[in-house]
Write a structure and sequence with these properties.
The complex is a heterodimer of chains A (307) and B (597). Chain A is mostly helical. Helix content of chain A is 78%, strand content 0%. The radius of gyration of chain A is 24 Å and the shape is flat. The two termini of chain B are 46 Å apart. In chain B, the strands form four sheets. Chain B has an eight-stranded mixed β-sheet with strand order 16-17-18-13-19-20-22-21, with helices on both faces. In chain B, α8 links the parallel β7 and β8. Chain B is globular and about 75 Å long. The C terminus of chain B is likely disordered. Classes of the chains: A mainly alpha (307), B alpha/beta (597). At the A-B interface, α8 and α9 of A face α2 and α4 of B. The complex binds adenosine-5'-triphosphate, iron/sulfur cluster and magnesium ion. Iron/sulfur cluster (SF4) binds next to loops of chain B.
Chain lengths: 307, 597
């Protein structure tokens, strides 16, 4: 297991390097530069600024400089928020995004798994059909459609919840963003859980458990739960990635000053280093979490543990 | 009052009755066998007793257990009977135990559910039960997961879970079908030993199993109860013609016609063949070690052995489907070497293979005519369409299928018909050697009988040589001229069929024979003919690989590998073959089975 973990960690390094190269190239391939403003700068001033940020060097040299900084944990200065480094910006925006993401993930798992199980137990019933209807719609409607609809209904019409972030107080302001973020994941997880629970309930070992007179509650809780959530576990990686990307949109829509907002601003302003820094930060996070999920697999399934 | 009384039991799926008006009784402490061919409704009957049928099954009739109606009752009510008063053991212990839960926990749950233990003493009770079913080191196995145990050990756990509440009735549905024959004997002994005054309902397709172990028999055919009575009288004077057919098809290891030895010239010689594999962890697994044998023209050579003995690996290497690591094989004066694609067309034509599972071996999207005719397209491309069709019809006729089968697809065939098609396909190129790998294993007794007759007829007509792989000694006895016995990749004995069955020379051969159930209630089963289970081929024992299970093992057996040598009409690999007397059964070493892998 230890060996396996080590190998996996080492194996992640090339992936990460590839992400850095691709992100670097993509950001630099975008037309325009960070200092192209409406106000045209005098030529010598522009050249000075370019030189100060080494933007006048050839691309490979810039990349080498960036990479060596990266290896020292330095993501460089922001081109736009002139007094801050990228690391400082990430540190200021990430905690909020993290809180949103964790809440959304927790909600998605809780609601998704339990409704999936209930649907599987009542296969074919009205309840099952409702869950499935919701799951299909939840998966097919994108976040940027759901968010305004929810705001319209709960904030504008019913006025139960605050519409925006600034000005609103307490936990209430989290509710709509978290639900928006979680909704597609709830739908997907519910569907996964239902399908796999139905499979598990049809296995011979569940038949054995029934033949032993264990009640449905014990059967679900002790015998069926672990095997049934294995597919959900392997979906956790993609789910985390989806929530991270979803948070970019959600933060923008609700005006939440998280990392997603920095990312959008950075992209609009061609703040190379900021965009690049966030992409690399998120990529590292996703790779690390995927690794954690894989190891979790081994914890739950004794047959995998033997590797 | 009977313990169980089933009256007019009917089970239907979408208006097809799979069990039809079955009525029977089981008294306290009695052992009753339910026999019948595949699909006759045995399992459905068993499942219905505990209300375990799938949701779309419709059940009518009545199931009275100890005065209480169980048919169509709620789960809540049934849960008081399930596991507590009626225990059940299923066929495949790998599937029937939860791979995610420790063995101990799976048993604990049962005790706690039925309030026969509390949190404090449950563990001790479970460990005591594991001890009773013969699990070595029960404290350790308590914490093991099912995949860490061997097949036999898992089935012991299954039995422990069914008996832990001391039920009044134990249902065992093909409890040993997934196990090796020597382990089967241990498990059947264990069931008998442990059940005390628990009544037993033993379900099986194998008449040999019920013959010596059940007091009464019920015979099912197509969902109907066609015969019932005391085991001895059902065997001695069956009333129903179908029962008679079943009994006639039940082969035995102790009597029946044997093929005379055949002295044709050698067509295939194998010398020092070895096959090895590497698993994911790069451990070397020696599947076949240094096997030499020869096959004569017109002869059937059987290869027998339990799972992991290397039977299939040996023939696969001969056919070039997997590489042979050492040794050589010579067919018609020329070496058989390299992968099958690179072999001469004549070699590929002359050696043909028939697999175990006929249905999955046939391409489901082709009609029988195309399946059987396909080899002709490859090997006799010049043959006209009409010529091909003529050949296909002729060969199908030979295997007993008329022209009406030409246009059928595999799913429209029964198991026996599908196996005939597979054999026809293998025979159409008129091969010199036919290799049958457990080819009749999946077939019912009566159908199996027909396929065996078919093979014998073809052999008589065309001088075909057959290598017949099987783990079933009764089948082997009826078809082969000579028998080779393998254990953990090595040949341990090879002899003429008559000699091997009447006077086995190797202790393992003797144990296999003793463990094979005889379908005759007058022949008492040999108790615990062999202890333990076959060790993993990854870690074969030193010296004679059989020594941990052999009652005659001496120091030399641990130190030195025995070579094959002539002894008393056999070729035998045993150091002590001249000293030991196998006429008496092996000293009944009690089931102190060796630990699972
Ligand atoms: N869920 C189901 N739906 C429809 N038919 C079924 C179902 N389960 C079993 N059957 C049918 O019921 C009949 C009896 O099946 P059963 O499993 O009892 O046979 P069996 O005697 O135990 O056979 P085997 O020796 O192969 O185990 C078969 O024809 C089978 O195809
Ligand atoms: S060599 Fe020894 S251990 Fe092997 S079969 Fe003969 S007596 Fe038994
Ligand atoms: Mg069955």
């Amino acid at each position: 297991m230890l060996r396996y973990t080590l190998l996996r960690v080492l194996g992640a390094i090339p992936t990460l390097l590839l992400v850095v190269v691709l992100a670097f190239l993509m950001v630099h391939a975008a037309p325009g530069g960070p200092f192209d403003d409406e106000r045209v700068l005098p030529v010598d001033v522009a050249a000075n600024i370019q030189a100060a940020y080494h933007l006048d060097e050839p691309l490979p040299a810039q990349f080498a400089r960036y990479l060596s900084g990266l290896l020292h944990g330095d993501l460089g200065p922001s081109y736009r928020y002139r007094d801050y480094t990228v690391a400082e910006l990430i540190r200021s925006g990430f905690p909020l995004s993290l809180r949103l993401g964790v809440l959304a993930m927790a909600l998605a798992l809780l609601v998704g798994i339990s409704s999936g199980i209930v649907a599987a137990l009542r296969q074919g019933s009205m309840l099952d059909r409702m869950v499935m209807f919701f799951a299909v719609t939840g998966i097919s409607i994108p976040v940027f459609v759901v968010a305004p609809l929810l705001v319209l209904l709960f904030a504008v019409n019913l006025q139960w919840l605050p519409a925006g972030w600034s000005g609103a107080s307490g936990a209430a302001k989290y509710i709509l963003p978290v639900i928006t973020l979680a909704l597609p994941q709830i739908a997907y997880i519910a569907r996964l859980t239902r399908a796999s629970m139905i499979d598990v309930l049809g296995t011979d070992f569940i038949r054995t458990a029934r033949a032993q007179g264990l009640g449905t509650k014990v059967i679900i809780r002790v015998h069926a739960f672990k095997p049934a959530i294995m597919p959900v576990l392997s979906y956790l990686g993609p789910a985390i990635a989806a929530i991270l990307t979803g948070s970019v949109v959600v933060e923008e829509v609700f005006g939440i000053p998280g990392l997603g907002q920095f990312f959008v601003r950075g992209a609009l302003n061609r703040d190379y280093t900021l965009v690049l820094g966030i992409v690399i930060f998120y990529a590292t996070l996703i790779i690390a979490l995927n690794l954690a999920v894989d190891l979790l697999y081994g914890v739950i399934d004794p047959r995998v543990r033997q590797r | 009052m009977s313990l169980l009384e089933v009256k007019h039991l009917n089970i239907r799926y979408n208006d097809v009755a799979v069990v039809n008006g079955v009525s029977f009784k089981v008294s306290r402490g009695e052992s009753v066998g339910i026999v019948g061919e595949s699909g006759s409704g045995k399992s459905q009957t068993a499942l219905s007793l505990l209300g375990l049928l799938p949701g779309n099954a419709k059940l009518t009739g009545s199931i009275i257990f100890d005065g209480e109606e169980l048919a169509n009752k709620s789960n809540k009510k049934l849960d008081r009977v399930r596991g507590r008063r009626i225990g059940i053991v299923f066929q495949d212990p790998m599937q029937a135990l939860n791979p995610y839960l420790r063995i101990g926990q799976q048993l604990r749950l049962v005790l706690l559910q039925h309030e026969l233990a509390n949190n404090k003493d449950a563990d001790a009770k479970v460990i005591a039960m594991l001890q009773r079913v013969g699990l070595p080191d029960p404290e350790r196995q308590f914490r093991a997961y099912p995949h860490e145990l061997s097949g036999g050990m898992r089935q012991r756990v299954m039995i422990a879970s069914a008996l832990i509440c001391e039920p009044d009735l134990l249902i065992a549905d093909e409890p040993t079908t997934a196990l090796d024959v020597t382990v089967q004997a241990q498990i059947l002994d264990l069931l008998e030993e442990l059940r005390d005054d628990t009544a037993l309902l033993l379900i099986t397709h194998d008449l040999g199993i019920v013959a010596g172990r059940c007091e009464r028999l019920l015979v099912l055919e197509a969902g109907k109860l066609i015969e019932s009575g005391a085991t001895t009288s059902v065997f001695s004077s069956p009333e129903n013609p179908h029962t008679r057919k079943l009994l006639a098809a039940a082969l035995r290891t102790d009597r029946g016609e044997i093929q005379e030895p055949n002295n044709g010239k050698t067509v295939l010689g194998v010398e020092g063949a070895s096959v090895s594999f590497r698993n994911a962890a790069k451990d070397q697994l020696v599947a076949v070690a240094d096997v030499s044998l020869s096959l004569r023209k017109g002869e059937t050579l059987a290869i027998v052995g339990e799972s992991g003995s290397g039977k299939s690996s040996l023939v696969r290497a001969l056919l070039g489907l997997i590489p042979m690591r050492a040794g050589r094989a010579v067919y018609a004066g020329e070496a058989l070497e390299g992968p099958v694609q690179s072999r001469a067309a004549s070699q590929r034509r002359d050696l043909q293979l028939v697999f175990q599972d006929p249905v999955s071996a046939l391409n489901p999207s082709l009609r029988v005519s195309a399946i059987v005719g396909e080899p002709l397209l490859v090997h006799q491309a010049k043959l006209s369409r009409a010529g091909r069709s003529e050949r296909v019809i002729a060969i199908l006729k030979k295997v007993g299928l008329d022209e009406s089968y030409l246009r059928r697809y595999p799913h429209q065939l029964s198991g026996g018909q599908a196996q005939r098609v597979a054999i026809a396909r293998a025979l159409i190129l008129e091969p010199k050697i036919l290799i049958c790998d457990e080819a009749v294993n999946a077939l019912d007794g009566t159908v199996r009988q027909q396929v065996l007759e078919l093979l014998k007829n073809v052999q008589r007509e065309s001088g075909l040589s057959i290598i017949f792989i099987s783990h079933d000694l009764a089948v082997v006895r009826s078809i082969s001229h000579r028998v080779a016995v393998m254990y953990l990749g090595r040949l341990v004995e090879i002899a003429d069929t008559a000699k091997l069955f009447s006077k086995p020379s190797h202790p393992y051969t003797k144990a296999l024979l003793d463990a094979s159930p005889v379908p005759d209630p007058r022949v008492a089963p040999v108790r615990a003919p062999l202890r333990g289970e076959t060790p993993s081929p990854l870690t074969p024992p030193s010296g004679c690989a059989f020594h941990p299970r052999c009652a005659f093992a001496a120091n030399i057996c641990v130190e030195k590998k025995p070579a094959l040598r002539d002894a008393d009409g056999s070729r035998v690999a045993c150091h002590r073959v001249d000293e030991i007397d196998l006429r008496i059964s092996m000293p009944g070493v009690k089931t102190t089975a060796s630990p699972g892998r």
